[in-house]
Amino acid sequence: MPIFWGQLAIIGLTAGLAGGLFGIGGGAILVPAMVLGLGIDQKLATGTSLAAQVLPIGLLGALVYYRNGNVELRSAGLLALTMVGGSFLGALFANQPYVSSDLMKKLYGVFLLAIGLRYLVVR
User: Fold this and answer.
1) Whole-angstrom distance, CA of residue 87 vs CA of residue 80
2) Vertex 72: Cα angle to 71 and 73 (nearest 5)
């Protein structure tokens, strides 16, 4: 993967801002930006996104929200525990030989579209 340091820094800053503002995983920004903006393979972008997010986005953002009384620790703990299993299962599926980068792009697009429509339509 050729490294586009300046572009990656802008993508990272944007993902961090979105994570802090909206509580979304940075992957919602990182993956499309790397795939569509930099031409990086979907599987490589997904793995790179996961590796980049392990600590920095959630830890610092959550600390600010916690200090302002906007974190429910028991719920966060349950979500974290169950996300470990979900992340593992998702990674296993994505790395099967029959799952192409093209299929992953399509699945990701449908997922983002469904979430976006739900936000726009449901009150």
Assistant:
1) 10
2) 100
What's this model's pTM, rounded to 2 decimal places?
0.72
Classify the C-alpha dihedral 17-24-82-40 as positive or negative: negative
Q: Are the beta carbons of 26 and 49 closer than 8 angstroms?
A: yes
Integer Cα distance of 28 and 31 in angstroms: 6
| DSSP structure class, residue 70 | -
pLDDT tens for residues 26-77?
788 888 988 898 998 889 888 888 888 766 667 777 888 899 999 888 888 8
Contacts of 81 (CB under 8 A, 6+ apart): none
Residues 31, 67: Cα–Cα separation, whole Å: 30
Give the separation between CA 40 and CA 35, rounded to whole angstroms.
5
